[in-house]
Structures are given as C-alpha cells and as structure tokens.
Amino acid sequence: MLLFLCLAPPVQAQGVTAADEAEIRGVIERQLQAFRRDDGQTAFAQASPLIQRLFGDPATFLGMVQTGYPPVYRAAQVEFQALEWRNGVLIQQVRLVGPDGLPAIALYEMERQADGAWRINGCALVRAPDLTT
C-alpha cells in the first residue's frame, strides 16, 4: 500500500500559483502510483520531452527507475515538502521511505511545458535523516 503524507503544506514558490502546486503534486503522485503498478506508459507520460527522448520508451525508463531509484520505484511512504526555486529551476522536495525502510529525499525538477502543463525533468535522491526514532 502506498501512503501519502502531507503534514504541512509546502511553502509556495515565488511565481507559482496554488493551481501550479496542485498540478505538480498530481504529476508526481501519478508517476509514483504508476511505478507501483509497473505501468511504464503512465510513468513515462509524466516525464518531460527531454527525459522521454533520453530514454526512448516506457520500458527503458521503467527499467532505469527500478534499478537506479528504488525509493521512488517502490515508495512505502510519501511526504511532500518544500517547493522552491534553486538556481532558476523549480524543485519539489518529496520525502520517501523506500522498500528497505530507509528515508530519502527526492528532488524533482519540474518543467512547465509550452501548453502550460508541468512535467518531471529529472529527479535526484539524497539521504534523509531518519525521523522514526
């Protein structure tokens, strides 16, 4: 079972509306749920055109996430944190607990498309402090 937590609303990033925040969260949630179902097509659809070109097809993308991003691929817990601009890039921080029970922070780079939609343009994982003590 995938558990989504939202203990406190993320701080609104400058120039980003509440509707943008909701769409960004929805894009990330759809992708995480797709990974849980091994639905490469839906997960791939949440990625930016650049990421789609880099990986070429949903199966290759899904395989990369399975091997390189276990906390994202099989997140047991998800908590949305700050949404902020870093060096001109909009980053959504998400605290995850992976299948190994260890916490991680996923830094999702978000990119607005020409049609106004938000897509994931990359994700970096960093170790998170364990807050379960």
UniProtKB/TrEMBL annotation:
InterPro entries: DUF4864, NTF2-like_dom_sf
Organism superkingdom: Bacteria
Protein name: DUF4864 domain-containing protein
Organism: Oceanibaculum pacificum
Upper classification of the organism: Bacteria, Pseudomonadati, Pseudomonadota, Alphaproteobacteria, Rhodospirillales
